[in-house]
Amino acid sequence: MLYESTRGKYRRVSSAEAIKLGISPDGGLFVPCENVVIDKDTLRAMVGLEYTDLAYLILKEYLDDYTEEEIRECIRLAYNTKNFDSPVIAPVRRLTDSLYILELWHGPTCAFKDLALQILPHLLTKAADKTGEKATIVILVATSGDTGKAALEGFKNVPGNRIIVFYPERGVSEVQKLQMITQEGNNVDVVAVQGNFDDAQSGVKNIFADESFNEELQKSNFRLSSANSINWGRLVPQIVYYFSAYLDLAAKNAIAPGDKINFVVPTGNFGNILAAYYAMDMGLPVNKLICAANTNNVLTDFIRTGTYNRSRSFVKTISPSMDILISSNLERLLYHITGRDHARVCQWMADLNRTGCYQVDEQTNNKIQEIFWSDYADDKETIEMIGLIYQRYGYIMDTHTAVGMKVYEKYAAATGDITKTVIASTASPFKFNESVVRAILGDAAVRGRDELSLLQVLSSTSGLDIPAGLRDLDRKPSLHKKIAAKEKMAEVVKKILLG
């Protein structure tokens, strides 16, 4: 399996090379050159498999330059009871006979990013070996809150790697910030950016695109790579849990193999729902992919109209990991939907860079709407949904999952579709405890309390233990205090690496 750039101006590469590079030197994203197909008989045979065995069957199709032993070792190091507090890794919870929750937050940082970022460092280390890379791999990450900590946790102390995480100074929750600035490791750096997530993400992309800067680093034996979902090695492991959810329902006789289901995915950067699209493209029986946005609803507008317009007010919400106006992974979808049309993708991305907006043609928009449906939920709706689900089912969900739940409610009302549906739960409710406690106990319960004290309140109310990765954050020393203007991010990288 070879990989090509969505921009079409770079040579085809192996999966190891794609993972090592992270982003194509022409500014595009690497995508597989061939489609992978899982037929109905194979899908039926997968029912009942352990998550680790399922992961192998999916990953080997895309990473065929890795040996079976290499892939299985990466899986073993990532998906185990040391890293995940659930032996099934990504459990599915039943709310009703037609509605289920896919819990993706049982890893060390309590967010769905762990499903990919516990395995990516091992894939990347082997990629460097396989391609004869002698330089230190420097992972650059822009985070809206969860990717940063998950990447830091995955890459800490990994030989041959350095990691630098940029986060928006005032764009993450207090818990998310504390998780990052207290991160231990002899190869990690964390930097606050004076701007929002899009500023941080654009800054990282600009660093990758700066040829002279990259040449300077390579002379000093450093090579840049990425742990954001622009890296194929970050995206491909996420395909696994959509198969896992489907097969879990089949194993419980909630569906018969071959029955179609819906997936609802709260998303900002379009990576998580794009993994669902790849699963569907492989043959997973999916009826509709429901894209759930918050008030920064650029994706909803795009799916409905075919116009992508980032030139709008940026809103800080209680679902901060989705506070994004530049959805990088959408480029991959456009590439596939247009039949791998490099020219159109290049034109749209050039328009976005130049004017902040692009418009796809009617045929492309119609194809997207055949697969995707989208709406958004504001903060008020999100809070109300958390409270409603707690009252109705005794189930506590975080703000991002509640966005997904509210959007599903809107979808069902608009379409009348009664297809069984799985909602991707992307973070533990403990990560966004202030909003969750307010939703289920009222304003008085949060008055005068900070997020750390509210962890205990939520634990007492829910009967659930505070996740290990969130305990005692206030007792850990603050190890990272760097701040960068959004225009100075490259200078900060240079100072960290070259002194």
Give a description of the structure.
This protein has 499 residues and is of the alpha/beta class. The protein has a domain at 92-108 and 233-432: Rossmann fold, CATH 3.40.50. The protein is 45% helix and 16% strand. The protein has helices at residues 15-21, 40-46, 51-62, 68-78, 114-117, 120-130, 146-155, 174-181, 197-209, 211-219, 232-251, 271-282, 298-305, 330-337, 342-355, 362-371, 379-393, 399-415, 433-441, 451-462, 489-498; strands at residues 2-5, 13-14, 30-32, 92-96, 99-103, 136-142, 161-168, 188-194, 222-226, 261-266, 286-293, 307-309, 357-359, 372-376, 421-425, 482-485. The strands form 4 sheets. A 6-stranded mixed sheet has the order 4-5-15-10-11-14, sandwiched between helices. It has a 5-stranded parallel sheet with strand order 9-6-7-8-16, with helices on both faces. Strand 6, helix 7 (146-155) and strand 7 (161-168) form a beta-alpha-beta unit.
Chain-wise SSE layout:
Elements: E1 2-5, E2 13-14, H1 15-21, E3 30-32, H2 40-46, H3 51-62, H4 68-78, E4 92-96, E5 99-103, H5 114-117, H6 120-130, E6 136-142, H7 146-155, E7 161-168, H8 174-181, E8 188-194, H9 197-209, H10 211-219, E9 222-226, H11 232-251, E10 261-266, H12 271-282, E11 286-293, H13 298-305, E12 307-309, H14 330-337, H15 342-355, E13 357-359, H16 362-371, E14 372-376, H17 379-393, H18 399-415, E15 421-425, H19 433-441, H20 451-462, E16 482-485, H21 489-498
Parallel strand pairs: 5-15, 6-7, 6-9, 7-8, 8-16, 10-11, 10-15, 11-14
Antiparallel strand pairs: 1-2, 1-3, 4-5, 12-13
